[in-house]
Amino acid sequence: MRTIQQPGPAEPERIQWREARGRKLTLELKPGLLLDAIASAFAAQGFSSGVLRLPVGLPLAPFAYVMPALSATPEHAAFYSETFRPEGVSRIETGALTFGARDGAPFFHGHALWREADGRHNGGHILPDQSFLAEPLSVDAVGLEGAGFVAGHDPETNFKLFMPAERPSGGADAGGRFFVLRLRPNRDVFTALEAFCAERGIAQAIIHGGVGSTIGARFADGRVIEPFATEIAITAGHVAPGADGKPEAALAIALVDYTGDMAQGALARGDNPVLMTLELVLEAS
């Protein structure tokens, strides 16, 4: 299994989690700062945290983003590039977003691939406070009640990252069995999810959202992404009983690596360790 040495000590427990209630939503986003649009739309339905998959065609202008990059110091295993600001309207092709709180205020963590106004295809990490929604849009999402994502300092990676945390009730109508998860570095995504579900008697689950990074990538069709620093968005995922009756995960992602190369597709089971973090929500059925 590929591993990357992180600057800080590794916690024994490799999955951070909280159980929550949840509800599938349609968010009506209004033009303006994307962070404000998402926060207002969640709040209008009584939620302070949630996840969503970014729809095809979502228009951003002005728009700012960064890409994964090598770290210039030993303080981080990998870092971010300079900020890019493409001209005109950029339209999302695929992506995912985690919404929660940072420093007591609404915040999101979003990774995507998109097409820029000049036709260029790019991908990376959307900057919440510098990216604007150009047109009104409806977005499918999952709102979380009782627990959600709150950013905190992670000693292992030396980054401030979204982590599962209890959240005060907003009075939203929510139910079901939802789990707010953060996978830590150097653990295969599939074995982590499958073990988590097996330990809790979860035979089937839908994966909602999904933002983070892997150490390169190995796809089910044999493609290999060697550059170790990536930013990924889960585009589809579930857990279901395998041939042996045990939980078996299936995941498809979109990614950009630190060289600027992009890829999409189903991941190979058992060979895709987390680089820094992977945030997602499991809806058990």
Q: Which homologous superfamily in CATH is the superfamily of the largest domain?
A: Hypothetical protein, similar to alpha- acetolactate decarboxylase, domain 2
Strand fraction equals over 45%
Q: What is the name of the CATH class of the largest domain?
A: Alpha Beta
Poorly predicted residue ranges: none
In the CATH hierarchy, the third-tier topology of the largest domain is known as: 60s Ribosomal Protein L30, Chain: A
Total strands: 20
Overall number of structural domains: 2
Question: How would you classify the helix and strand content by structural class?
Answer: mainly beta
What is the C-alpha radius of gyration, as a whole number of Å? 18 Å
Main sheet? 14 strands, antiparallel
Helicity level? under 10%
Task: Calculate the terminal CA-CA distance, rounded to whole Å.
Answer: 31 Å
- The total of helices stands at 2
Mean pLDDT: 97
SSE order, one letter for each helix or strand: EEHEEEEEEEEEEEEEHEEEEE
Q: What shape does the CA trace take?
A: globular
* CATH architecture assignment name of the largest domain: 2-Layer Sandwich
Q: What does this protein look like?
A:
This protein is mainly beta and 285 residues long. It folds into two domains: 21-143, Hypothetical protein, similar to alpha- acetolactate decarboxylase, domain 2 (60s Ribosomal Protein L30, Chain: A, 2-Layer Sandwich), CATH 3.30.1330; 152-160 and 177-284, 60s Ribosomal Protein L30, Chain: A (2-Layer Sandwich). The protein has helices at 34-44, 189-199; strands at residues 15-29, 32-33, 50-54, 59-60, 65-66, 68-69, 79-80, 90-102, 105-115, 121-126, 132-133, 137-145, 147-154, 159-166, 175-183, 205-218, 224-241, 247-257, 262-266, 274-284. Strands 1, 3, 4, 5, 8, 9, 10, 12, 15, 16, 17, 18, 19 and 20 form a 14-stranded antiparallel β-sheet that branches. The longest helix has 11 residues, at 34-44. The two termini are 31 Å apart. The relative contact order is 0.23. The mean pLDDT is 97.
